[in-house]
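Sample pair:
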Amino acid sequence: MTDVDPARAGTSEEYLLLLRQRREVAGLSYRQLERRARRDGGSLPPSTVATMLRRSTLPGPDLIAVYVRACGGGTAEVARWLAARARIAAAAVVPPATEPGRVRLEPAPLHREAGPARGAEGGGGPGRASVPPPRQLPPAIAMPVASARACAELDAVADRCGSGLAIVTGPPGSGKSAVAVHWAHRAADRFPDGQLYVDLRGHRPGTGPLSTAEALTYLLVGLGVPAGAVPADDAQAAAVFRSLVADRRMLVLLDGAVCAEQIRLLRPGGPDTCTVVTSRDSLVGLAVHDAGRPVRIGPLDREASVRLLARAAGDRVVAAEPGAARSLADRCEGLPLALRIAAAALDTGARNPIAGLLDRMRGEGRLDALELHSDGSAGLEAAFACSYRALDVPQQRMFTLLGLWTEPPGTDPAQAAPTVPALAAAAGLTVARARAVLRGLADVHLLVRLPGDRCALPGLLHDYALRLAHEESATVPGAASGAVPPPLPAGVPGIVPGVVSGAPLDIRRVLFPSRPAARV
């Protein structure tokens, strides 16, 4: 706890003063803040902090979130700082009041640049100036690898009568946002009254998710409502939003959601609107209770992976090493993020850059070879870390346990994967409880379900989970000297212990260092 309360700030200058006091209370230098931010997957260079604290203008929300977390603040404190920032920013906009204590919430009518006329719908009274429809979509990635199947499913949602809802979901690094933005640009003509976009920041390294109040403010400001006129109550602000778009043909793209509740108040209700949500979570609540259509984005096949690699690294580079390019595509497991990082990691001055990267992967490991040293927050491990930190403790422990499960040489991976009863025994859980934990991992695409009641992690996620297990084992008493307790009994099916400091690693001691060994 700290006595630095951002709610006391009424101006940007007072807010910056409290930010400076927060660092002083934490007793941290700029270098220490940088190291803490990097540990959490963020980026906070000392020069950035110094510039931010010297200025009198409000820093960006992302920078504030990384800074407060580096100072030791948790999710709740980050939310308080962001709420205070939003309040001060809104107060800087003076709304046009018609009467004392009242503001006009109705924005000017949108000027339709395309699409058929709709009579008096959405019109306005005489003398009201028109404003251009919002065109808020971010730029499409220059080299998209959009799934034709996914785009066809999104087309089907947009063609539905009523307010359509699509849930674009998939594992970290699979290109969900790229596919959604690519489709939204292609389908923009269907929505002549505008396209609204909100980055919900659900899985961005070093930041917390956007609050409902902040997201509604972005949507209403995009429709012409002054920021200071947005109702403070979430339900009231949502009602104003739905009223403004009720008779308009609009697309709302909500990127990076963390849960169904984050979405429900942000959906328009008009019959000609469409909402597209992207998330690593399956958001089954939206599918069940809100008639959302899941659009699952899976890994690319080898041919599509090689094409993406050629677009990112250059056709000539890939054409010079076709066999190595196919091997690299396989090592990246069809994840667009991994493929783009691999293209950026190529030593283009080398004679065989792709073969050289494959050698580094074999020698250093895939995660180290695919690390972005200049921007750790954009790397593959940072993307995985965001999903891991969102898990509850039992799910984190089960994820780490799956990382310790290795395949004997020459074994069929599907047969070597652990069964649910074996995982339950290794984790000290009942089979029913283990199934619930594993179902939670599958819902956020951190787990692959296999025939025969088996579960496994995809290779890159397995590498990350194994690294977490090794890092956690360093905190177990005796691990550093190799005096680790004996491995699990041979009677537990499927266990192949990992090795740390040359000694067998007892999975129970890694997962539950303070719990007595259970009988299995």
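The chain is about 45% helix and 10% strand.
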